[in-house]
Amino acid sequence: MALEKTIVLITGNAMNSTCILSLSSSMLTVTGANSGIGFETSRALINASPNYHVIMTARSLEKGKQALSELQSESPPPKGSLSLLQLDVTDEATISAAASEVEKSFGHLDVLINNAGIVSKSSTLKSQLEDTLNTNTIGPALVSEAFIPLLKKSTSPKGPRLIYVTSGLGSITMRSDPHDTYSMVDAMPYRISKSGLNMLAACHHALYGKGEQGIKIWTFCPGYVITNLTGAEEREKRKKAGALGADTSAKSLLAVVEGERDADVGAFIHGAGKYPW
């Protein structure tokens, strides 16, 4: 692997559903990269430049291999390169193993996109909170803890980048506004988990984002998104409600990776601007 490549890691799992809610060579790692936003972000990166190597991660290696094969076999062929690692953000052993493999293979990481997320369908509030906090908040914290030492070794001239994929539903300011577009969406466990993720990003910005050698950190909402995780009927409902395709969110993430949102480092951003915390 040429050292000049930007190494990007995208995290997640096979049931990634970040921001999916019903209204009723540079090195990059993308978690949750085998479906939806993670998959489309991987595609956007490798089609943007031969300088990107994207490390896709998935909880299920079988599903991850299917996604990897699909991207590698597209025509025209991608400009950048891809690899796959197994990583479950709720399993510390897989996080540690993935970090060790990245260090062994590349020696550093340039971009980490913490994309993993779920909406729990458990039957009790307790289990819903446990599910969403484990995947949406605790998991990203553990992933970042494992990979920040590698981000500090980044060789990218743009500097290391850490992006937390969150949701506007995690904004306390917007939740307190009765006129907010999504004020009627309850989703309490999901909202709580994403508020926690936002605080994690703010804390990491304070800890690691200072100085010229600091890590550039953002909290990014991809918007109300249509992905392959929903049935045909639900997809049609979302289209009518103005939902975006995952490829639109991927383009916005690509802009962050490429430095177009550097003026907003440390902020809670979306494709067209910024959200209040």
UniProtKB/TrEMBL annotation:
UniProt superkingdom: Eukaryota
Any one of the GO BP annotations: secondary metabolic process
Gene3D superfamilies given in the database record: NAD(P)-binding Rossmann-like Domain
Protein name: Uncharacterized protein
Pfam families associated with the record: adh_short (PF00106)
Similarity comment: family membership: Belongs to the short-chain dehydrogenases/reductases (SDR) family.
InterPro entries recorded: Fungal_SecMetab_SDRs, NAD(P)-bd_dom_sf, SDR_fam
UniProt-recorded Gene Ontology molecular function terms: oxidoreductase activity
GO cellular component annotations of the record: cytoplasm
